[in-house]
Design goal:
It is built from 13 helices and 12 strands. The protein is an alpha+beta fold. The protein has a 6-stranded mixed beta sheet with strand order 4-3-2-6-5-11. The chain is elongated and about 75 Å long.
Length: about 375
């Protein structure tokens, strides 16, 4: 069969299983009219003793850090890992940390005054001096409204933003606040890394075409759109585990690269390492969605060299972190890459003509 752009789109659009079917919830980010109240700049040192800075003003303030959360800046690339941001977000809420879905309660002014006097002072000063309102403080002055994200604070989640194309990052701690984009909490936590790989693959670019053709996408990513994202799992559990492990590698690599400057240097060792694992994941995901006809030797070589994080010495039970020397683990991943490339049969592995046709069509249409 010859795979044209339209036949690829038609194939993906007919996949019946969707992200909505496997998700516990999909929801929007936070929306507030008082961004200058809630959003703060981090100090250069970002230490517990260093004050925050008012957004847009050269003024330092101290706040109780229990009510301050990390912030995901959609201006940055947030592919696989959350990009470190220079902002944080103040939330005067009580959040109970039990269960998948949390109970959240807006703290009353008297509670803030007694328990969090620095936050109380910040809100009062903002109301008096920025809004020029001297009336008594009300909880409505600092509420962020009925935001479902608050119910999933401290719950692991995928955060998807539309940064030229869909970009999905894994917030393992689940405590990051975001404005633009959507959060995804899955029913089965073991699926996070596989779904992360699918959302960052060429399938997401095909899905964007489907949304535009069906006029589902008006320039703003919504939960309704994401619920329709097609999901196909491999028939073999070994292959699903392989894709998930590679996805966890990419989450780690992106996280390390985001902390360097400049973040991406084409031709650098880290950049080439990233692209190597990205190509492997994309190939495996595309084969799962379209042909399910991998060269058995190709899969065998990958499974013989790629192991979960927990199987590396010193990593413990962590899936993403746990290595004290991050560069040491980057070196481990370089060694794994080299072992794969040095395997005599690796260069002889071939894809069938149908799958090669799909890759060529995707490449010609900017989706590979």
């Amino acid at each position: 069969m010859f795979w044209s752009k339209n036949s690829i789109i038609d194939k993906v659009s007919k996949i019946s299983n969707t992200l909505g079917d496997i998700s516990a919830d999909i929801f929007c980010g936070i929306n507030t009219d008082s961004e200058y109240l809630h959003k703060l700049s981090l100090s250069d040192e970002n230490s517990p003793e260093t004050p925050y800075k008012c957004m847009g003003l050269n003024k330092e303030i101290n706040l109780e850090r229990e009510l301050v959360y990390p912030f995901i800046d959609s201006a940055f690339s947030n592919e696989y890992a959350v990009h470190p941001s220079s902002y944080c977000f103040m939330l005067p809420y009580e959040i109970k940390a039990d269960g998948l879905r949390k109970e959240c309660r807006l703290l009353e002014p008297d509670e803030l005054k007694t328990g969090y006097p620095l936050v109380y002072s910040r809100i009062t000063d903002f109301k008096n001096n920025f809004k020029h309102d001297s009336t008594p403080l009300s909880s409505a002055d600092y509420s962020v409204g009925d935001c479902k994200l608050l119910q999933y604070i401290n719950t692991p989640k995928i955060v998807v933003s539309d940064h030229y194309s869909f970009q999905a990052s894994f917030d393992a701690a689940g405590n990051s606040i975001f404005e633009k984009g959507c959060g995804i909490v899955l029913q089965d936590s073991s699926n996070y890394f596989y779904v992360l790989a699918a959302l960052n693959s060429s399938i997401s670019r095909v899905f964007s075409e489907i949304c535009q053709n069906d006029r589902l996408f008006n320039g703003s990513l919504t939960p309704g759109v994401l619920r329709r994202f097609p999901i196909v799992f491999p028939d073999e559990k070994n292959l699903e585990a392989l894709i998930s492990t590679l996805s966890s590698y990419l989450t780690y690599i992106h996280g390390q690269i985001y902390r360097t400057a400049p973040p991406y240097t084409p031709g650098s060792e880290d950049y080439e390492l990233l692209k190597f694992y990205e190509r492997l994941v994309n190939l495996l995901v595309l084969d799962t969605y379209f042909t399910k006809d991998l060269d058995p030797r190709f899969q065998e070589i990958l499974e013989g060299n790629i192991v979960p994080f927990g199987e590396y010495p010193g990593c413990g039970n962590s899936e993403v972190s746990g290595f004290e020397d991050s560069r040491c683990f980057m070196n481990e991943l370089q060694a794994v890459k080299q072992k794969i490339l040095d395997t005599p049969d690796f260069g002889k592995c071939r894809f069938n003509s149908e799958f090669t046709n799909i890759l060529a069509t995707l490449k010609n249409n900017g989706a590979w």
